[in-house]
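dude i think i finally got it to work??
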Amino acid sequence: MGTVEGEPRDRPTGLGRRFLYELLWAWLSNIVALFVAAAIFSGVSYGDDFWVLVVAGLVFGLVNVFVRPLVLFLALPAVILTLGLALLLVNAFMLWLTDVIVPSFEVSGFWTAVGAGVIVWLVNWLLAVLLRRDARRRVQVSVRRS
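look at this
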């Protein structure tokens, strides 16, 4: 179905809304994770400019959506042989790509990238566990009240 000329399009529903929610969630989560990584590692910096962190979080999310699947496919034998430890290198590579794409975002050194990759993964995981569980609890409470 098309839209009548001059009328606004409907808001995304169902799958589209869910995709936008997940994209926004990943972006915000990456901003927090990169901030924590920069606070822990002196080799990770964003020039104390919040907007660089916002752009780096977006780029990191997009790199993870579009590039990471290909890298994981190519690195699958190494991931299997190392029982998943090679994923640390994949995460470090995603941070390095973000460093290359965002000029003011810097990750200096291989081990800094590996360590920051672990921190970013850990922070994203903790945020997902804590905040999404809380969101599910709110939904369950509201369903019970209905």
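Residues 25 and 85 are 26 Å apart (CA to CA).
im so relieved honestly
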